[in-house]
Amino acid sequence: MLSIPVMSAVVDVLRSEGVDTVFGCPGAAILPFYAALRGSGVDHLIVRHEEGATHMADAWARTTGNVGVAVGTSGPAGTNMITGLYTAHADSVPMVCVTGQAVSAKLHQEAFQAVDIVRIAEPVTKWAVQVKEAAQAPWIFREAFRTARSGRPGPVLIDLPLDVQRQDIVWDPALDAPLPVPVVEPHRPRVRRALDMLLAAERPLLLAGGGVIGGDAHAELAELAEYLQIPVQVTLMGKGAIDERHPLFAGMTGIQTSQRYGNASFLESDLVLALGARFGDRHTGALDVYRGERAFIHVDIEPTQIGRVFPPELGIVSDTRLFLRALLEEARSRGAGRPPGSWVRRVQELRATLTRRDDFGTVPIKAPRVYREINEVFDDDTYFVTAIGLYQIWGGQHQRTARPRRYQVCGQAGPLGWEIPAAIGVRRALRGREPDAEVVAVVGDYGFHFMVEELAVAAQYDIPFVIVMLNNEYLGLIRQAEIPYGMNYEVDIHYDEYGTDNVRVMEGYGCSGRRITEPADIRAALEWARKEARATSRPVLVEIMIEREANTPHGASIDAVAEFEPLPPPESTGVR
């Protein structure tokens, strides 16, 4: 075996791990890595901010199910990545961030841009490590990919001192391969107990969390639900685990991203089988109401997740797909299949009656009308990305999702500005997989500007997607949160009729856009944006001016189901 530059071995590892694109920004302390990247077959997109690189890698990973890779140099490049690492950690997204570092001999001397990024990153990663010996580098990268994929997926940070990057090592890629990822099989006695509890319950629910999406368990979920005729709810991170038009779909429970019928059906249930769900506080609300008299079975691949929020009646450590397969096998062996019963009919009754309006024809435009048009214009194969704020809540309440990985949201960390770099990551992931699939970023007017500079990346690399902006000229969710305090402080962000001219911002980046003020014009604008994005291979904005002081219905616990305005009979709406 011949001696080769150690960074060439590292890039060989990336390629063999299935990485076709990395997102980053070169700097002096990471140049040997970039030298190895050149001509390797692994593409690179140069970003305008390292946080943008992490969000791109994050969304690339959510779309492909593989490990995304972001790269930066030393010092502030690494600290700029912390928000993206936190986002991936919170949402269980596999990612590897690579940072350059000052030479080893200078780390204790406060060298230029030398910072202990490993210690900074440790709280928001599964593993943070500095490579101290060049011969360890390819093995550390192998272990990083295995760690990112294993158990509850998440991010890893690898710090590379410049002197380590410059060395040669003995390495033969022909003899190398990815390390095996441990398989987490369910304990069969617990599978049988889970089935006993499901069959004994009168009003059971299946609750699909992000672990169903990440574990590619959506097909098994639908098969089990149909065989046992059990209604299915989803969490925000589980949105897309089942087609929301499926007769067994029972909505979402929660204090924000929820349906009225979802809360009502949950409160009537007597058993919940939670699959890869964290029981996050925006889902549960007040725990005494959420738990009530119902029993819980909690299935999660990470043992320490079970009992973290409250103790379930039964905990099962398992990969979600393997658990569902085992449960279905056990159910079939008992001949437990059954037709729809009174509980399924009751859930369907709630779903048909406890709805929210989305047919508003008033000016200013009401946000639910925007989602009505989005649902009708874009098809089931469209990939949506969205972030945090009132529009995340409206999206959870009103946007229809039919397939896994098509609704991507930074659910737990909620960084403003996530959508534009995420849309780039999704679009790049689809190249060669689903080149004709559409990508839509739903944004707010405030968050849009947090990472707006990444539009330059999309323009540079001909990356088309549609941006739908809900512009209320306010920090809407913060304004709503301030109401109990009797104030309306520092939330108004307009300084002329509309505030920033977002259409001209788009044009400044070589993109295009339109502003909409009438509900009747929304659909035509969305159709125009789809065509314009295809024709120009650039992002296209549809800015929709919505009512300034709109509130979303949500409360302190999931029992707040009576406050929402019901949908009137079809003949009285006056609007299609």
From TrEMBL:
Q: Which SUPFAM superfamilies match?
A: DHS-like NAD/FAD-binding domain, Thiamin diphosphate-binding fold (THDP-binding)
Q: Which residues form the Thiamine pyrophosphate enzyme N-terminal TPP-binding domain?
A: 7-118
Protein's UniProt keywords contain Repeat: no
* UniProt superkingdom: Bacteria
Q: Would the keyword Isomerase turn up in this protein's UniProt record?
A: no
Keywords for this entry? Answer: Lyase, Thiamine pyrophosphate
Q: Report the EC number(s), separated by commas if there are several.
A: 4.1.1.47
Q: Taking every annotated instance into account, which residue ranges of this chain make up the domain Thiamine pyrophosphate enzyme TPP-binding?
A: 388-544
The Swiss-Prot or TrEMBL record annotates one GO molecular function as:
tartronate-semialdehyde synthase activity
- Taking every annotated instance into account, which residue ranges of this chain make up the domain Thiamine pyrophosphate enzyme central? 191-327
Q: Describe the family membership recorded for this protein in Swiss-Prot or TrEMBL.
A: Belongs to the TPP enzyme family.
What is the name attached to this protein's record?
Answer: Glyoxylate carboligase
Gene encoding it?
A: gcl
